[in-house]
Amino acid sequence: MTGKSLNEIIIFMAVAEAGSFARGGEALGLTGSAASKAVARLEARLGVRLMHRTSRALSLTSEGERFRDSGRAILEAIDQAEASVATPSGIPQGLLRLSVPDAFGRKIIMPLVARYLEKWPDVRIDIDVSDRLVDLVEEGFDLAVRIGGESAPAGIVSRVIADYPVRICAAPSYLERRGYPSHPESLSQHDCLLFRSGTRTQEWFGQSAGATRERLPTAARLRMNSAEAIYNAVSAGLGIALLPSFLIDEDLAARRLVHLFPDMETGQVKVVCLFPSRRLVDPRVRAFIDHLTAELRRSAQRHDQRA
After folding, report:
1. Please, what is the average pLDDT of the chain?
2. How distant, in Å, are the alpha carbons of 89, 236, 305 from that of 101?
3. How many separate domains does the chain show?
4. Model-level pTM?
């Protein structure tokens, strides 16, 4: 059955219930003439007359009565199909499939997921924790959280929900062995740990007071596609890294890591939510985005107060 055929059945049912083309068409926002033509097309396709028409009255033929009864079953089935997936009053429910980056997912998102599930007990969550770039539509994800401000592909909505400063850091053991870089230009003489995504390798930028923003020279000793792996490598003294504050601030405070060039602005990373473009965003997706945004904002405010 095509959508056009279904529309003709719906119009026939409205006319049959109203008892006239004018009232039946009006119920669907159509003129009486348009409703009459739709019913005529339906009769031509079925090869039977469904209605007796006179200048003063409209009545169903025996075939029309049988078709009306079958049409009611069709409309009831449509109502049941809508009810099976509709959420009452927009209440989040059903399965939410998420893709989240490794380090950020484990450290930041997982505690927030627990509170989200507590708030919305009818939601189930399936999480892919990985730094790989998933295909939301092809792989059936409702939402992806990503670090970085790359432009979203066609058909995907991107919403920035937070940003974190990034800092150049190293472990005391590395600095004892290789010495402190005296100037940002001397980073090219050190072992830098760089993030790699596909064919793209992380670039570092810095801006000192009164100067312009410049690309910093780096010599890659190790390149990895996992921020958590880079964090583990820098903590083990394998080199110098540029990492977001949510990963390293506790280590800087405990002096397990050293903040290099603290007077230089080294930028920020954006946290973005990506989801397929739809006219209506599922309540469970919208609720999770709102929950994540609010929680990250509160976390940032607490961090600023401590700082």
Report:
1. 86
2. 32, 22, 27
3. 2
4. 0.64
